[in-house]
UniProtKB/TrEMBL annotation:
Transmembrane segments: none
Quaternary organization: Dimer of large and small chains.
Name recorded for this polypeptide: Acetolactate synthase small subunit
Annotated gene: ilvH
Alphabetized InterPro entries for the sequence: Acetalactate_synth_ssu, Acetolactate_synth/TF_NikR_C, Acetolactate_synth_ssu_C, ACT-like_dom_sf, ACT_dom, AHAS_ACT, AHAS_small-like_ACT
Pathway: Amino-acid biosynthesis; L-valine biosynthesis; L-valine from pyruvate: step 1/4; Amino-acid biosynthesis; L-isoleucine biosynthesis; L-isoleucine from 2-oxobutanoate: step 1/4
Organism: Actinomyces gaoshouyii
Catalytic activity entry: 2 pyruvate + H(+) = (2S)-2-acetolactate + CO2
Keyword annotations: Amino-acid biosynthesis, Branched-chain amino acid biosynthesis, Transferase
């Protein structure tokens, strides 16, 4: 990843950080949140936004590569935004992260059975079939999806579409519980 400044440039000490940000569901809030990363020179690796179980509140999941102190500064600046309600950095050891992929693969009469066996092996799903291709839907960790793509590569991967990563903490507590406690 390239960055506009040395503050956000990846180094040996920089790592991926997953932030879960609760925001008021108002126009422009996503722009303001992503602009903070841009101003600090960070490239956002993944960004996903959706409604929560609380009316008027959305959840933004941001994954960015940064050094610890630089990410602390971004978090402090995010906390100052009016529409930001709560920020939690998720620890990979205590959270679940998933991405959705749609993968179009060449699959004709000669290789369709082999492709379908790979799909079954990875617990993926075929969501569209044509005479010369199939579209596969899979949800999982980055390593699982990479392994699936490697297995499908010999058959001819024609197209890939992926969502941003979504993440949630393990256990009974939720970020919205923490918001309600305020």
């Amino acid at each position: 990843m390239s960055a506009a400044s040395t503050a956000g440039a990846p180094s040996a000490a920089s790592t991926m950080h997953t932030l879960s940000v609760l925001v008021e569901d108002t126009p422009g809030v996503l722009t303001r949140v992503s602009a903070l990363f841009t101003r600090r020179g960070f490239n956002i690796h993944s960004l996903a936004v959706g409604p929560t179980d609380t009316d008027g509140v959305s959840r933004i999941t941001v994954i960015a590569n940064a050094e610890g102190r630089a990410m602390e500064q971004v978090t402090k600046q995010l906390n100052k935004l009016v529409n930001v309600l709560k920020i939690v950095e998720l620890d990979p050891a205590t959270s679940v992260e998933r991405e959705l992929y749609l993968i179009k693969v060449h699959a004709d009469d000669a290789n369709r059975t082999a492709v379908l066996q790979i799909v079954d092996l990875f617990r993926a799903h075929v969501v569209d079939v044509s005479p010369s291709s199939v579209v596969i839907e899979t949800v999982g960790s980055e390593s699982k999806v990479r392994a699936l793509l490697t297995s499908l590569e010999p058959y001819g991967v024609k197209e890939i579409v992926q969502s941003g990563t979504v993440a949630i903490t393990r256990g009974p507590r939720s970020i919205t519980d923490q918001l309600k406690e305020k």
